[in-house]
Amino acid sequence: MCCESKRRFLLLYATQKGQAKAIAEEIWQQAGAHGLEADMHCISEMDKYNLETEKDPVVIVISTTGTGDPPDTARKFVKKIQDKTLPPDHFAHLQYGLLGLGDSEYMFFCNGGKTVDRRLQELGAQHFYDTGLADDCVGLELVVDPWIDGLWLALKEALQLQKEKEGMNNAANAVSSSLSTAPHAVHEIKLSSEVQNLKLEDEGARGPDTLSQKLDNVNLVAPARDTEPSLVHSVPPVSQSALNIPALPPEYIEVEFQDAQGKNPHLSSLISEGTTFEVPVTKAVQLTREDAIKTALLLELDIADTAFEYQPGDAFCVICPNNVSEVEKLLHILGLSDKGDDVVCVKVKQGTKKKGASRPQHIPERSTLKFILTWCLEIRAVPKKAFLRALVECTSDAGEKRRLQELCSRQGASDYTCFIRDSNVCLLDLLHAFPSCKPSLSLLIEHLPKLQARSYSVSSSNLYQPGRLCFVFNVVEFPASPSRPVSRKGVCTGWLAELVAPLLHPNKDSQDTKGESSSTEKIFIFPRPNNAFHLPADSSVPFIMVGPGTGISPFIGFLQHRQKLREQYTDWEFGETWLFFGCRHQDRDYLFKQLRCFLENGTLTHLKVCFSRDSSTAEVAPPKYVQDVLRLCAKEVARVLLKERGYFYVCGDKKHMADDVSDAVVDILSMEMEADKLEAMKTLAMLRESKRYLQDVWS
């Protein structure tokens, strides 16, 4: 292969938070070792590739965002291929393999990838390799790693066929003879590739001593007395294994410190999703009692002087900073405490081996160090294996170096899942656990993803409260754990709670509490419209709302909007409305007791509530959860959905509520239709398809 020119394939990625890009970069890095060259581009860069004329195989890595949407970077591409005027043989010349990324905790798993895959098939494109669907709920690497392993043989076979079609018989015969034994040596290829990776993956990246370093380190960790593995400690077989670790990502960023004072860029420049608005927080109310398990806050924003528009059911995003004390700790560990206010110039390293290297879009070319760590980088992100691999080179202690190697290796995959991914470990936790690890600022910029704005459901109606936008959230708490030595609050919810502390009023029983102030605290927001989670267009259509806890948030906006419509249009017909709400304790976290007002004025027809932790002396125990109450109202639920063609809305926690509600609806449909469960599931699927069963859920 060394005498041949490398064969090209087109590699496209569509990413929202950087996962798909990181995987595409891993494919690009591995390609060279297999005698292939990946021509890699973001799928949005449609001026740099042309699928209409592409002759080489195409590999696509695509994530999913929102409620099953393609990532923002793929929207133009998806719109282009969904053109209904395209003929069914438009891509008949195209061979492709697709890797979709998603999270099975959400209803439309990998729908971004499935959408592109399905449409390419409809337009005549052919798979040269089976589609892979990786699940972030259990660990993307469980599908990603074997999918990449199998990609190379499939690519070579596709390129072989392409040569034959082009009439390159001599080359085709040569490739054919080299691949003729492949079916009999699949296991041998996979096993030898493990060894080959150790030899090839780092050549030229950090010098020729990389292999010996890996092999020398295998037995450097002294046998520990502990028999249980942990973040910093391994046990056999991992502790005694030769390791297959990822290729060392090439460095591509360099930073230069300047003593001169500089002005930081405006926060709106960090957002590519659309127009941002700086708005004052005019009101804050704590909706839960002090002894409630979770603290729920309602915030009101003044949008009167902006062009911000929304409908009940929409979401919007809040631009938030990292925690100040965490930024200070990171500066201290990096040895940069005295340089926080210094200006940093960020540019691409000359001579880098990274394909198409460029300064990350979320990193300003020139800003202070504190600005980068506070507003640009997600320092709470769970480190990817490529980041762990890079941190190995920054670690001086042999035992710590070996453990980091294990955590990013294939052999240590379960340890990575348990002690890093599932434990929600972040960079600070790693640096605390591995004190000899001293990464550079440039490495952090290369590997930490963009600090994402946080999304919240609107909890108000512009008809009911003109010029105001309300939202409700729980202050997220992450307790300390063996892998995470300190407890933390959510990045955005913790910041918001601290920001509005002066506004909070001691009377927390009602949304109408006057937690107002002349405070001028402002936050940056931008709209995130929801294309489906809206009130029925026909006001006469009945609907059911299920929203325990803060899941009730969008339904307050629904009810406020419906109340104003009833007042303004007295001759309209309005369908019945049902609300199923649940919380732990009636006296501690019943978030909106004024729901009774909606019931009394006729806006809300039926209100069903339950309290999961309250004790009862009743002979028959009351239902604890919303799904239990739904089952008690089975006939009415079935009537609304089946006979009256009503809508069903669910908002709240995915894992512990939305799936249970879905199961309850299936049981109700099965019972009332006198059909088996499979038939009921098909009916529910039809409701979803027709946008009459709608979810706004989070994990």
TrEMBL record:
InterPro entries assigned to the protein according to its UniProt record, in alphabetical order: CysJ-like_FAD-binding, FAD-bd_FR_type, Flavdoxin-like, Flavodoxin/NO_synth, Flavoprot_Pyr_Nucl_cyt_Rdtase, Flavoprotein-like_sf, FNR_nucleotide-bd, NADPH_Cyt_P450_Rdtase_alpha
Q: Where in the cell is it found?
A: Cytoplasm
- Which PROSITE patterns does the record match to this protein? FAD_FR, FLAVODOXIN_LIKE
Q: Does the keyword Ribosomal protein apply?
A: no
* Top-level taxon: Eukaryota
Residues annotated as domain FAD-binding FR-type: 274-536
What GO biological process, any one, is recorded here?
methionine biosynthetic process
Q: Which GO terms describe its cellular component?
A: cytosol
Pfam family for this entry, one:
NAD_binding_1
Question: Which cofactors does it use?
Answer: FMN; FAD
Q: Where is the Flavodoxin-like domain?
A: 9-152
Write down the EC number: 1.16.1.8
Regions annotated as coiled coil: none
Ordered alphabetically, the record's keywords are: Amino-acid biosynthesis, Cytoplasm, FAD, Flavoprotein, FMN, Methionine biosynthesis, NADP, Oxidoreductase, Phosphoprotein, S-adenosyl-L-methionine
Reactions catalysed: 2 cob(II)alamin + A + 2 H2O + 2 H(+) = 2 aquacob(III)alamin + AH2
Q: Which GO terms describe its molecular function?
A: [methionine synthase] reductase (NADPH) activity; flavin adenine dinucleotide binding; FMN binding
Describe its assembly.
Answer: Forms a multiprotein complex with MMACHC, MMADHC and MTR.
Q: What is this protein called?
A: Methionine synthase reductase
> Which organism does this sequence originate in?
Chloropsis hardwickii
Q: Which gene encodes it?
A: Mtrr
